[in-house]
Amino acid sequence: MSILTRPKPVIAIESIDEISPVLQQNNKTNKTKNYEIRKAATKQELERVYRLTHDAYVEMNYAKPQPDSRLIHYPELENIPETTVMIAESGSRVLGTLSITVDGPAGLNTDRDFPEHTSRIRSQTKMLAACWRMVTCKDYRHKKSIVKDLFKESLKFIFRQLEIDTLLCTVNPCHERVYQLLFGCETVARQVKSIDGLENAPAILMRLENKNVPERWFS
C-alpha cells in the first residue's frame, strides 16, 4: 500500500456521459428505462445480490467459484441498520447493485482494506460513510446507464437524506480517472495487492466531500 500526498482538489467535469447515478429519498425511483432502482427490502432480494456478486467476481477473476454460488465479501456489514443495499431491478432480476454503510459499531469495509487511512479520515469528519459492492450483471457491464443511475441515486441518499459529510469508496484502478473527473473524488491511497478476501483485485481508496459534489447530481 502506498500513501499519497494530498493533491489539489479535482474539479468535476460537466459531461456525465461516461458514468453517473440516480436514487430517490424513498424506496422507489422513477422507471426511466427497463429497470427501477430502489432499496433491497427482502431476504430474497439480498440472496439475488449475493449471487450476482458471486457471478460477476468469478467472471472477472476476482474470486473463485463457491459451492452455493453466493459471495458475501463483508459479512460483518450485512443485515445491520447502518447498511443500505441499492438494486437496479427488472422484474425479479437484479441487474446491478451498490451497498452503502454509515460508520457505526461495525465500522466500514475500508477499515479492513485501508485501516490507517480510514482511521485518519474518521478523525477529520463528523459523518462518515462508505459505498462498496458496485456490481452489474454480465450483459449490462458495459452499459453505463445502470452504474450512472445507481451512483446518482446513491449520492442523493448519502448526502441529502443521510446528510453524510464524507464518503469513502474503493475502486479498481481502471476507474480512478472517471471518479475524479465526474464526481470530484480525491485519491487517498493505492493498494497493489488484492483487497481482503478477493484475488487479482487491486484497489484505490477515494474520498468525496459533500460540499464538493456538483449540484447536478442532486437534480
Ranges where pLDDT stays below 50 over 5 or more residues in a row are 1-32
Tell me what portion of residues adopts beta-strand conformation: 15-25%
Strand order of the largest sheet: 1-7-8-6-5-4-3-2
**Overall number of strands:** 8
Q: Encode the helix/strand succession as letters.
A: EEHEEHHEHEHEE
The major beta sheet can be summarized as:
8 strands, mixed
Mean pLDDT across every amino acid position: 82
Structural class: alpha+beta
Distance between the termini: 37 Å
The share of residues in helices is: 25-40%
For the record, the CATH architecture of the domain at 16-168 stands as: 3-Layer(aba) Sandwich
Which fold does the CATH topology of the domain at 16-168 refer to? Aminopeptidase
What is the top-level CATH class of the domain at 16-168?
A: Alpha Beta
Question: What is the CA-atom radius of gyration, in angstroms?
Answer: 16 Å
From the spread of the alpha carbons, the general shape counts as globular
How many H/I helical runs?
5
Identify the CATH homologous superfamily of the domain at 16-168: Gcn5-related N-acetyltransferase (GNAT)
